[in-house]
Amino acid sequence: MKDLKNKIKKYATDFLPEIIAIRRHIHINPELSFEEFNTSDFIISKLEGMGIPYKKNIAKTGIVALIEGKEPHLKVTTLRADMDALPITEESNVEYKSINNGVMHACGHDAHMASLLGAAKILSELKNDFKGTVKLIFQPSEEKFPGGALLMIKEGALENPKSDNIIGQHVLPTLEAGKVGLKTGKYMASTDEIYITVKGKGGHGATPELIIDPVLIASHIVVALQQIVSRNAMPGVPTVLSFGRFIANGRTNIIPDEVKIDGTIRTFDEIWRAEAHKKITKMAQSIAESMGGACDVFIDKGYPYLVNDTHLTNKVKNYAIDYLGNNNVIDLDMRMTSEDFAYYSQKIPACFYRLGVKNEKKKITSNLHTSTFDVDEQALETGMGLMAWIALSELT
């Protein structure tokens, strides 16, 4: 295995310039969820160049490809990358800045695809050195409900051949390039979107006695709903309830007829999740009615919480230590962010780990989902090499 590890490391170094170019091409040409048509065609062109067979148009723009080693049906290890960008205008002045105004790879999915293509290129060179099959999933729409993972599963991405496990890699801008992080068990929260419409009776701001003020009602609702976490959530179950949109489209002296409030709730327990939905609805409607108004509540149920299989994740951690050294592999805490990779984790043993991309000397420190987000491209060497090493270790 030492010789194979050294081969992978050499390939990762040799292939890095090409993989950086791939990442930059994708970064320059980002596409939104379920609109990744050019991205999909670009990935297909790279797979064809490597001689890797694939199926396309899964969940609209998704791709499933296979790299078969010796005895291909012995075991199937699956590697996944997501493809979509975000509706953010890039503010960096890098030479590979997005040319699609208002669209940007601000979550590192360009690095995920590039790393997976790099791993594919390495594994193609080593397919006589492992037994089984490596399945590659390029998945659309991680950023938008209902999530591309769920649709790809429904369309058979984990079947024919049946995946025995799945591994995903995601960038982490708070972790230095060259390092990776993992956590066994519950790792990322479920996520649901909350849409509340508070209805009242608008009018002149100078005659409050003649109106039913939905702005005041909505304000009471936002404050009161914080009790869902502080007084109702079980202390041992992390829960976050946040509202990021409050629209009262009036003026200084005009009270509108209705107010819209949008937010999110995230947690790690399905029973509590369902109970919280009921409490949010009842509390909001009761407050509105008690103040003379009315309230419509719609909670769009999103991704479940993500669970890293303990046995698989411990193996991946040991593979990472073997490949990168103990000092470059860290333990992570639970996160209240969410990922539709969680759907895979409900079906088969899964491991979702983090790739460090921070470089303070290069001033690459911006957080995910920001207009200045970037990655230290040297991390792609770690990303592709480690993914290839994990897959090969699982199949030898």
Descriptive terms for the model:
396 residues; alpha/beta; Aminopeptidase; Alpha-Beta Plaits; 2 domains; 8-stranded mixed sheet; 4-stranded antiparallel sheet
Strand order of the largest sheet: 1-2-4-3-5-16-6-15
**Helix content percent band:** 25-40%
Share in β-strands:
25-35%
From the 3D coordinates, which CATH architecture of the largest domain would you assign?
3-Layer(aba) Sandwich
Q: How many domains is the backbone divided into?
A: 2
At the fourth CATH level, what is the homologous superfamily of the largest domain? Zn peptidases
* SSE pattern, N- to C-terminal: HHEEEHEHEEEEEHHEEEHEEHEHEH
Rg on CA atoms, Å: 24 Å
The number of helical segments is 10
Outline the low-pLDDT stretches: none
Span from first to last CA?
9 Å
Specify the biggest β-sheet: 8 strands, mixed
Q: CATH topology of the largest domain, which one?
A: Aminopeptidase
Number of strands: 16
CATH class of the largest domain: Alpha Beta
User: Shape, please?
Assistant: elongated
Average pLDDT rating: 97
Structural class: alpha/beta
